[in-house]
Structures are given as structure tokens and as C-alpha cells.
Amino acid sequence: IPREHPTIEASFKSLNEKEKWKLFTGKIVENILHNFNKLCVVGHPSCFMILDLDDATYINEKLFTEEELEEMKKETQINIIYKIPQHLQDYINFLNCNNVKDLRMRLTDTQAWEREYDINKYHDLDWVKCTIHSYIRFYRSKELDTVQKEQWYSKQVWLTIDTVLNDIKNIYIIYIHNGKYVSSTSTQRKNKNKTIGSTSFIKRVKYGYECDMIVKERKASHENANEFGTSETGIKYDGTNH
In 183-225, where do the E strands start and end? Predict the structure, then answer.
């Protein structure tokens, strides 16, 4: 049985009609997603106006045609505003070798930035060097030739992601190597309308989405920290799961 979402309904009604996305066929994207939401028995991303243009659901449920999806893809192309800094481009190109032996030799070359290292200036260069060196070890060890458990990939392959933002003091990455980490933002959203008990028992706390990684604001434990993104790990990509 389809579930009602009062908060989503209220959010949809607050949308400005003039700002809705109208396709060349006359379809209004937000209206299509909202009507589909009323038929969903589980929380499909469209319920929250999240549009995954690679989701086969839109074709299977006859929400949009191939032509309409192509129109939306052209309209939502990502424009890169910030380019990779030139000094970082140059160093990556310096490490662009045709074989592992040459790459190892390049990595042994001491760079000028390493002699007077400053994390605020050269963190990205250092991160690239350490990351490539660690992946060379994996490549030579043949460990990547064997299909491992998901936890192994989290501990070994994706470990470098833990340190990619080390130069930003107010942001850090929580990467869970054992079990899952519950998103506090998701938990707050699910319990937004929770009230204490009165004529009925108090409702149990709803837990948020469990993630493998969360990019989070660094704050004291008693403060509510903003969350900027989440991630899931897997042995291989099997399409969008969430």
C-alpha cells in the first residue's frame, strides 16, 4: 500500500509553479515525480525530488520517454567552475609514465616542495604522491587480481580517501571500516515531528541512513555538525542502489 508523506506533500505545494521544469512535450518534471511518489510503496529517490536520469524506473513505469530523458541530460550537464591548479596538473603529468618501473623512479625524485613542506600549500601534491605509491604496491602484490570482501576494499583500497581533506581544519571524513555509521542529518530529518508521550506512548526514535563514509563538519561533540555528503562502498558497481 502506498504510504503518505505529509512533509513531502507540503514541500511540493510550496514549489513555485513558474520555476518548475517544463519539457518540450509539455510535461512538468516535478508534477510527474510527485504523482509517481503517491504510487510508491517504498522511498524511491523521486519521492524527495531526486532525479537520477540513469534510473530505468522512469522508462519502465512510462514516466518519461527516451527523448525526454535525453533533453534533461543535456540541460543538466555539469560545468566545472574550478580547474585543477596548474602546479598540481604539472605534477600529475610528471607522474604519467608508461610502466611501473619509470613511475617508481619518478616517485623517488625529491621535489622542491618537499624540502620545505607546508601542509597548507602542498597537501594535494603530497596526497597524490602517497596515493600513487600505495596503489603501486597493490598493483605489484597482485592483491587486486582477487575478488575481496567489501570490508577489505574499505580498509585497503579506499583508505586514501580518509586523508584527502586533511588540510581543511573544519571538515573531516568518517570512513567506517567495520559496520556502518548512521547519518545524524538523516536521523534529525526522520525525527523532525517527534513529540513526547501524552495521550499515546512516545514514538521510538527513528535511525537515519547507514553509510560507509560521511563528509562532515568538525565540531565539538555536543554541537550539531553539518554533513556534506555520504558514500557507499561495494565490490563492483551494479547500478544505483539508493
Answer: 210-211, 213-217
Is residue 2 scored above 60 in pLDDT?
Answer: no
pLDDT tens column, 140-183 = 888 878 888 877 777 777 778 878 888 888 887 776 555 556 66
The C-alpha atoms of residue 94 and residue 174 are separated, in whole angstroms, by 31
> Do 182 and 206 form a contact (C-beta atoms < 8 A)?
no
Quote the crossing angle between the two packed helices 119-141 and 86-94, to the nearest 10°. 30
- Residue 123 CB: number of other CB atoms within 10 A? 17
Helices (H) and strands (E) in the chain, counts: 10, 5
Q: Are 171 and 228 in contact (CB under 8 A)?
A: yes
pLDDT tens digits for range 87-141: 999 999 999 999 999 999 999 999 999 999 999 999 999 999 999 998 898 888 8
Question: Which residue, 24, 2, 48, is CA-closest to 190?
Answer: 48
3-state helix, strand, coil in the chain (%, to 5): 45, 10, 50
Write the DSSP assignment of 91-132 as a string of letters: HHHHT--SSHHHHHHHHHSPPHHHHT--HHHHHHHHHHHHHH
The Cα 166–Cα 142 span in angstroms is 29
CA-to-CA distance for 113 and 85, rounded, in angstroms? Answer: 15
Q: How far apart are CA 216 and CA 152, in angstroms?
A: 23
